[in-house]
Amino acid sequence: MEQYIKQFNKRFRFKASNKNMRATVKLQLMLAKAEDMGNKEPKEQLEDFLNMTSTVEDYINNLLKLNKEQYEKLEDLEFNETVEIANLIASKIMGISNDEVEKAKKSPKK
Question: Rounded CA gap, 32 and 57, in Å?
Fold first, then answer.
């Protein structure tokens, strides 16, 4: 499968292999748990955020097989853009279309 990533101005190819599916589910689980950070002490929140930042970057780097220049560009992106890239890849791996992603963004959260 392929996904165009505007931040790199490039189409990347990756597979929905078991390894990539496992990494995707782990990432989604971690992001879901991040919503519960408000109940933690500030030190724990910072540790979790640091872990989340590294995990999201590693996920993108591993799935897209970024070269050194692309990885440096990833490092310079804002965190929201980085999560956007990870979500695009995860959606593709999990078989969710770009249209479904856009609809989900626009629908009110419960």
Answer: 17
